[in-house]
Specification:
Layout lengths: L2 E12 L7 E12 L3 E5 L6 H7 L8 E6 L2 E2 L6 H7 E4 L12 H11 L4 H14 L15 H13 L5 E5 L7 H16 L3 E5 L3 H4 L4 E6 L2 E6 L1 H5 L2 H6 L6 H11 L11 H12 L3
């Protein structure tokens, strides 16, 4: 589909040119294609959130460049449009909310982009339906549950008609059911053509991605499909990163002699392989 975001030789240093300088990213090369699903993983301090904030100009490179739809994030006049094209949802949605009514929260972004009234109202209603928030439209966002807040933060981005959704640990603080609801929403949006960049610690979430980028101390340590990355078990162990739960279980069963194929990353794939292994030949 072609490049939506291009990251070229990106380095970022906090407090650059001061005695308190802290390098966060070093010479990152990355392309995010239209409609793809990229997961970015790594330990705290690896540079994941810094990279996320560089993707739409919330942070500008210390050196190197980031391009969104062929516009450089250094171009100040293009940043408003970039932040509508590449929308970000952070771990704590409360930090993003600017209104006291959920419906107004969804309307805020497109209204500031100058979307006409009739289209604005239609967008808001559509997004509320798509995210399952219609019944909560008149509530104060801060009275919602954590999962509802996460969905509202996503809804507020969707109303601006983005081409890419960046999720910076957006499910990290959610209960299992709420987390699953948000993941299903995101996967549905991706199936509809939206590009997704998911910053996450949860390795089971990584299995839904098409590509994985592993960061370590601001540099790219691994990249590839989930199957390619998780096949490098020794390297992952060096990076102190876990396998997805299903892959870890499969690894334990393999050590006990179970005849399982390689690359089992999801519960569904593991169950199917176990059933197949148990059938008489």
């Amino acid at each position: 589909m072609g490049a939506l975001i291009r990251v070229q030789n990106l380095s970022y240093t906090y407090n650059a040119d001061t005695p308190e300088a802290v390098p966060a990213l070093r010479a990152i090369e990355l392309q995010v294609d239209a409609g793809e699903y990229l997961a970015v993983v790594g330990h705290n301090g690896s540079g994941k959130s810094t990279l996320a904030k560089c993707l739409n100009g919330l942070l500008l490179p210390t050196s190197g460049d980031v391009w969104v739809e062929e516009r450089n994030t250094r171009e100040a006049e293009a940043r408003v449009a970039m932040r509508a094209t590449v929308g970000m949802v952070f771990q704590n949605p409360d930090n993003q909310f600017v209104t006291t009514v959920a419906r107004e929260e969804v309307a805020f972004g497109p209204e500031n982009l100058g979307v006409p009234g009739a289209e604005l109202r239609a967008r808001v209603e559509q997004v509320l339906r798509d995210t399952g928030l219609q019944a909560l439209a008149e509530r104060n966002p801060r009275t919602l549950s954590a999962g509802e807040k996460a969905r509202l933060a996503i809804a507020a981005i969707l109303a601006m008609r983005p081409r890419c959704l960046v999720l910076d640990e957006s499910t990290a603080m959610l209960a299992p059911r709420a987390r699953q609801e948000v993941l299903e929403l995101v996967q549905g949006l991706h199936a509809g053509g939206l590009a997704v960049v998911a910053i996450t610690h949860a390795m089971d979430e990584v299995t839904a991605a098409q590509r994985v980028l592993v960061l370590e101390r601001g540099e790219v340590a691994l990249r590839g499909t989930p199957r390619e990355v998780f096949a490098q078990r020794e390297r992952l162990a060096e990076l102190a990163l876990d396998l997805p739960p299903a892959a870890a279980i499969a690894q334990g069963l393999e050590r006990r002699g179970a005849p399982l194929p390689e690359g089992l990353l999801t519960p569904e794939a593991l169950v199917a392989a176990l059933l197949d292994a148990g059938r008489p030949t």
